[in-house]
Amino acid sequence: MSTPDTLDTTTTRLDGHTAHAHRLTVPVDRGDPTQGEITVFAREVVRDGGEDRPRLLFLQGGPGNPSPRPDTISGWLDRALEDYRVVLLDQRGTGLSSPQDAQSLAGLTPVEQADRLSRFRADAIVADAEALREALGIDRWSLLGQSYGGFCAVTYLSRSPGSLREVFITAGLPGLTNGPDEVYRRTYAQTARRHAEFYARYPDDAALAARIAEHLAGEDERLPTGERLSPRRFRRLGTLLGTTSRFDGLHHLLEDPFTTVGGERRLRSGFLQDVGAELSGARHPLYDVLHESIYVLGPTTGPSAWSAERVRAEFPEFALDSTGEFRFTAEHVYPWQFEEDPALTPLAEAAELLAHRDLGPLYDVEALAANEVPVAAAVYVDDLYVPYDLSVETARRIRGTRTFVTNEYHHDGLRLDGRRLLDRLVELARR
Fold it and tell me: AB hydrolase-1 domain spans which residues (predicted)?
């Protein structure tokens, strides 16, 4: 494990708070020192007068997303700072924690890339958090996990519960034994239901989206990054349907896509710019490379083998040649993305190897059944990304878990109403 002398800290001021930037050196693979070291970064925010408060570790959703970069203090963070010093961890491979992308992995063979990336799952993230806790001299800390951060929280409860005072989870209770196929069957069905809500609000958008896809099938339209926008890649904009804050944004994106150039109908450059920003994997490549691996749970599930692509065949309404109402896809990753996205193409062989690799388990069902750490979780009935029924089942299997079940929010409840949500979870955990 890392020791305090490997911790480097710098301090700045932020809107009435002190911000400590911590950098910690940790092994890539704790079982094999020859794999080298990486840096793990965390920003600790301390409210003036709150220096003696306990720590709360925040784990961001993803996988592959860095922790928030607050320039002002509001929402859930403002509420948390009333009780805690808040540690915003960049999970390994993201943000300032030795980011992993085509550039940083360029010197490795595909096999070496896959070997390295297989060590960036929740188990390693928890081990990094434990190293940081020890380096900061903390006996126990509280934890808030949003979405994939909640998955990591359940791994933490499985492996190092003695380090946790209490755990809060929003939209992030994973199935404990359910592999990717079961997850995607539920998310495809939920995506279909979400389309019904979207088209009820914007009835003309189904035909408009179909016209755009038909146009893309026959015309060479280029994104700002240079590659052709395919109809199947355009469909991935459905990930916007999973959040309250961006649900209407999909409609706004589609409002005025076409223009006329030299007598020919073309897609507007502004439309292509906005679509490219939504679809590119350049900023967060680990999201696509590792996404299916978060549902792989060892021998009980086996490899993902491109689960979203396989399960899609069970839902003909999502087929590219479907003649029914137009369907976007949501939080589903497909192998052809690594052919079409320049940010992902250099990692295509590594992603293929990972998709067919047996990865280890992430949860200890027996340890969770004997859990003694207070756990409070917000579960959203209409969550597009984390299936409601699996979350409820997991809550029942983690001893002592209290749930706030609601249909008030979609996946981004913490972003939209974070103060109220965290207040409710703190109340539940301490009741």
Answer: 54-207
Q: Per-residue pLDDT for 279 more than 80?
A: yes
Tokens for 184?
Answer: 């995607």
Using one digit for the tens of pLDDT, what is the confidence trace for 167-183? 999 999 999 999 999 99
Q: How many CB atoms lie within 10 A of CB 103?
A: 11
Positive or negative, the Cα torsion across 115, 118, 120, 124? Answer: negative
Where does a domain end: 338, 355, 372? Answer: 355
Per-residue model confidence as pLDDT tens digits over 138-152: 999 999 999 999 999
Average pLDDT over the chain reads 96
Last residue of a domain, one of 339, 355, 371: 355
In SS3 terms, 353-382 reads as HHHCCCCCCCCCHHHHHCCCCCEEEEEECC
Q: Which domain holds residue 201?
A: 180-355
Residue 383 sits in a domain of what CATH number? 3.40.50.1820
The answer to whether the predicted template modeling score (pTM) of the entire model surpasses 0.90 is: yes
Asked whether residue 390 falls in the same domain as residue 289, the answer is no
Whole-angstrom Cα distance, residue 122 to residue 184? Answer: 20
CA 328/CA 205 separation, integer angstroms: 11
Largest CA distance in the chain: 70
Q: What is the pLDDT of residue 7?
A: 94
What confidence category does residue 3 fall into, taking pLDDT thresholds of 50, 70 and 90? very low
The Cα–Cα gap between 318 and 332 comes to: 12
Residues 40 and 134 grouped into a single domain: yes
Same domain, 327 and 233: yes
How would you list the strands of the sheet with 17-27, edge to edge? 7-14, 17-27, 37-47, 85-89, 55-59, 141-146, 164-170, 375-380, 401-406
Q: Give CA–CA dist 318/329, Å, rounded.
A: 7
Of 281, 239, 176, the C-alpha closest to 411 is 239
What is the rounded CA–CA span in Å between residue 165 and residue 141? 5
Q: Are 213 and 231 in contact (CB under 8 A)?
A: yes
Same domain, 338 and 417: no
| Together in a domain, 124 and 189 | no
The radius of gyration of the chain's CA atoms, rounded to the nearest angstrom, is 22
Residues 336 and 229 in one domain: yes
The total number of structural domains in the chain stands at 2
Confidence band of 425 (pLDDT split at 50, 70, 90): very high
Would you state the pLDDT for residue 158? Answer: 98
pLDDT of 420 > 60? The answer is: yes
